[in-house]
């Protein structure tokens, strides 16, 4: 079993995608909240609120770095390890990914650079606009990736010509319900993540009695509000996808006939089903916890409990961890449910993998999964460290005056 | 239609070579130009804003290759699996160094990530040399030509980094410490002269190996690079090295396109339309962002910032 290159390629993709998504969820959710905070700070010209944006923005940028690193590997491992998919469906699944890189990631990274280096150097409205582009392109990026992913689940808008899939209907590809519902679910559930991270970090500081210029009192309220707003839409967009899991795609039967499809599906592994259902259960359980806790937090708001109730302040920092776990669980469920197919009813996972020797597949797995685990560990540690440290000394904290280090102490009398 | 897609891809790769050549080359050169902890910090501070704007060109090129040229992707990327794994590993290690270096104020932490930046930069440049050799050699790595091609590509990256460092490592007005900038400036001439020796030898090796399809256009591009290096190697010092090293770097993807033995892959028209329609509205935004970013970081690197 362990000398099967397919196993290593799948494990590598699953683990790297799981780690990648965890950071992506944080990026998406925090971007929306930071944009609102910065808008509010710039509108009021409030230095205290801008200091808070620097704090949350510092966490955002540290997290974004890991998102980019893992995204690079995601993009290239599709080319390296999944050549069978590219050979047959390259024109269709890779076109949205091409759009993602050019139209979304390109702008996101460039404007994030401008935002990082534009503090104190740029007109504040232009600086806000830079983060507006960063937020917009982050969602755009998620959309195009999900167009590609949605096609795997529900292949539409293509024709097989000479064994190669050719895109015939770009509109059908982009409006694939499997992609649109997944995007709705990702957009709302990451807002839930962003809200819970903001509320959790704020509650931690409030519990310790640290609240410089009211930033964490505002943070806990904004976080609870965002998470509560996103709670029900998350479940709605997620639940609406369940019927799609079991209906055969409309294009079923155009590559393989019904008997072949049945034979391939019957050979599916039982372990995969168990893992998929575990992912689903984790997701549903975590959502239920939020469904019980968030109304309590909303109730605590007018009673000033968010600022005073210790048990609530202990509970809140745990919630973002649960939310990230649920995100991974959701992906495990979605992706494993598609097995044994890579493109449902058209291409099996065994056909999609590059023909690699077991040694190379293992090398790739050890190299990239190992680097991912180390980098994710370091980034997670840095995030917790900066979140606990608070606004002073964060990654985006204002630089000390240029001559503070070289200045000779002046004794004034 | 196919020509549009090819020009787009070569354009993205040329943009990557010119822009990323700066920060990758300076990363390779940093053990030479930065001897003290303060100098090493400034090197990262100088390179870091660039890499955010430059590596997106390669990400976009990979995306366009996958979306519009799935055959090339299968043939080149999966066909040269170990080379691209080396490239990806170097890229990952280098970016990790740049992202993480400034996050903890400890000498050992800085040493680890500075090493990662240097090793990653070298791995990326050497991997590109190998990829170019494989493309020109039609999939195989020719015995004589490969090491010379790798050396020539590494020299061009170093030259680009030195030219960049000679300008960007100049201290901010009123500060001392121009040693790094001067070392980089001196290096431009040495590197250009070394390139002048290596390039003709590489061309001769390509001819001797026989397996390399040199072709007239490929030779013309190589001659243009040699001419560019000759200008830089002269007595005027690093003055012309920014534009000349840029021209030399930009010619690498052109060389790969005209001399590479890659079967002409037809971009599927509908996929091309989807990519064109979906990206066209963003192009002005991209142009504004890139110009704005590079104008903002054109000045000498500040003493401290997010990355260092």
CATH fold-level label of chain B: Formate dehydrogenase/DMSO reductase fold
Helix content of chain B: over 70%
Helix-strand sequence of chain B: HHHHHHHHHHH
The rounded Rg of chain B comes to: 19 Å
Rounded mean pLDDT score of chain A: 85
Main β sheet profile of chain A: 2 strands, antiparallel
Pfam family, one (chain A): Cyt_bd_oxida_I
Keywords (chain A): Cell membrane, Electron transport, Heme, Iron, Membrane, Metal-binding, Transmembrane, Transmembrane helix, Transport
Subcellular location (chain A): Cell membrane
Protein name (chain A): Cytochrome bd ubiquinol oxidase subunit I
Distinctive features:
heterodimer, A: 413 residues, mainly alpha, two-stranded antiparallel ribbon, 4 strands, 3% strand, globular, disordered C terminus, B: 308 residues, Formate dehydrogenase/DMSO reductase fold, 78% helix, membrane (chain A), heme (chain A), iron (chain A)
Q: In terms of topology, how is this protein built?
A:
The complex is a heterodimer of chains A (413) and B (308).
Chain A: H1 5-44, H2 47-81, H3 83-118, H4 124-153, E1 158-161, E2 164-167, H5 170-174, H6 177-207, H7 215-239, H8 242-246, H9 258-266, H10 270-300, H11 305-308, H12 310-315, H13 319-338, E3 341-343, E4 347-348, H14 349-352, H15 358-389
Antiparallel strand pairs in A: 1-2, 3-4
Helix pairs in contact in A: 1-2, 1-4, 1-6, 1-13, 1-15, 2-3, 2-15, 3-4, 4-6, 6-7, 6-13, 7-10, 10-13
Chain B: H1 2-33, H2 37-68, H3 70-78, H4 81-100, H5 107-136, H6 145-168, H7 179-209, H8 216-232, H9 241-259, H10 269-279, H11 283-296
Helix pairs in contact in B: 1-2, 1-5, 1-6, 1-9, 2-3, 4-5, 5-6, 6-7, 6-9, 7-8, 8-9
């Amino acid at each position: 079993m362990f000398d099967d290159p397919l196993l290593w390629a799948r494990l590598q993709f699953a683990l790297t995608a799981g780690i990648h998504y965890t950071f992506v969820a944080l990026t998406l959710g925090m971007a929306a909240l930071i944009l609102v905070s910065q808008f509010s700070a710039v509108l009021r010209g409030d230095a205290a609120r801008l200091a808070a944006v620097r704090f949350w923005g510092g966490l955002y940028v540290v997290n974004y770095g890991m998102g980019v690193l893992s995204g690079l590997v995601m993009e290239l491992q599709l080319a390296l390890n999944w050549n069978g998919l590219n050979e047959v469906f390259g024109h269709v699944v890779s076109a949205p990914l091409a759009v993602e890189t050019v139209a979304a990631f390109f702008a996101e990274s460039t404007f994030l650079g401008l935002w990082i280096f534009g503090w104190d150097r740029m007109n504040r409205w232009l600086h806000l606009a830079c983060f507006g582009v960063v937020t917009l392109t982050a969602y755009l990026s998620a959309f195009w990736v999900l167009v590609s992913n949605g096609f795997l689940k529900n292949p539409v808008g293509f024709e097989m010509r000479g064994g190669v899939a050719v895109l015939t209907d770009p509109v059908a590809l982009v409006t694939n319900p499997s992609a649109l519902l997944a995007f709705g679910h990702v957009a709302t559930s990451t807002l839930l993540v962003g809200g819970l991270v903001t509320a959790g970090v704020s509650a931690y500081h409030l519990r310790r009695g640290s609240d410089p210029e009211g930033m964490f009192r505002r943070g806990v309220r904004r976080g609870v509000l965002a998470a509560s707003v996103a709670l029900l839409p998350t479940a709605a967009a997620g639940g609406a996808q369940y019927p799609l899991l079991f209906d055969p795609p409309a294009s079923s039967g155009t590559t393989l006939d019904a008997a072949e499809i049945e034979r391939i599906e019957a050979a599916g592994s039982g372990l995969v089903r168990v893992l998929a259902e575990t992912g689903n259960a984790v997701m549903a359980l975590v959502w239920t916890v939020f469904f019980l806790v968030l109304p309590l937090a909303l109730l605590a708001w007018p009673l000033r409990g968010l600022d005073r109730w210790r048990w609530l302040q202990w509970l809140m920092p745990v919630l973002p961890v649960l939310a990230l776990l649920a995100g991974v669980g959701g992906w495990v469920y979605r992706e494993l449910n598609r097995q044994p197919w890579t493109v449902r009813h058209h291409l099996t996972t065994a056909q999609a993998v590059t023909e690699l020797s077991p040694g190379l597949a293992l090398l790739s797995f050890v190299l990239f999964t190992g680097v991912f685990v180390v980098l994710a560990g370091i980034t997670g540690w840095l995030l917790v460290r900066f979140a606990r440290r608070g606004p002073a000394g964060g990654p985006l904290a204002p630089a000390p005056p240029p001559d503070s280090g070289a200045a000779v102490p002046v004794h004034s009398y | 239609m196919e020509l549009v897609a090819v020009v787009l891809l070569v354009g993205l790769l040329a943009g990557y070579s010119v822009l990323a050549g700066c920060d990758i080359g300076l990363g390779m050169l940093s053990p030479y130009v930065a001897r003290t902890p303060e100098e090493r910090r400034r090197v990262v501070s100088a390179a870091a804003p660039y890499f955010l704007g430059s590596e997106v060109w390669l990400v976009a090129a990979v995306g366009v290759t996958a979306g519009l040229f799935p055959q090339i992707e299968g043939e080149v990327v999966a066909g040269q699996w170990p080379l691209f794994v080396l490239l990806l590993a170097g890229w990952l290690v280098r970016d990790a160094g740049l992202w993480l270096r400034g996050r903890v104020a400890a000498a050992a932490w800085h040493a680890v990530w500075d090493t990662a930046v240097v090793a990653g930069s070298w791995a990326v440049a050497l991997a590109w040399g190998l990829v170019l050799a494989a493309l020109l050699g039609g999939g195989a790595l020719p015995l004589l030509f490969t090491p010379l091609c790798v050396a020539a590509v590494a020299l061009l990256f170093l030259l680009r980094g030195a030219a960049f460092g000679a300008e960007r490592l100049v201290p901010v007005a009123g500060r001392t410490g121009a040693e790094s900038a001067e070392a980089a400036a001196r290096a431009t001439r040495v590197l250009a002269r070394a390139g002048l020796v290596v390039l003709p030898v590489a061309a001769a090796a390509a001819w001797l190996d026989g397996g390399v399809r040199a072709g007239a256009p490929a030779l013309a591009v190589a001659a243009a690079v040699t001419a560019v290096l000759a200008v830089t190697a002269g007595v005027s010092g690093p003055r012309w090295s920014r534009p000349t090293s840029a021209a030399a770097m930009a010619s690498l993807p052109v060389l790969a396109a005209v001399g590479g033995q890659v079967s002409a892959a037809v971009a599927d028209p509908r996929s091309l339309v989807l990519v064109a329609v979906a990206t066209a509205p963003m192009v002005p935004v991209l142009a504004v962002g890139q110009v704005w970013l590079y104008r903002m970081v054109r000045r000498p690197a500040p003493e401290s910032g997010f990355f260092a």
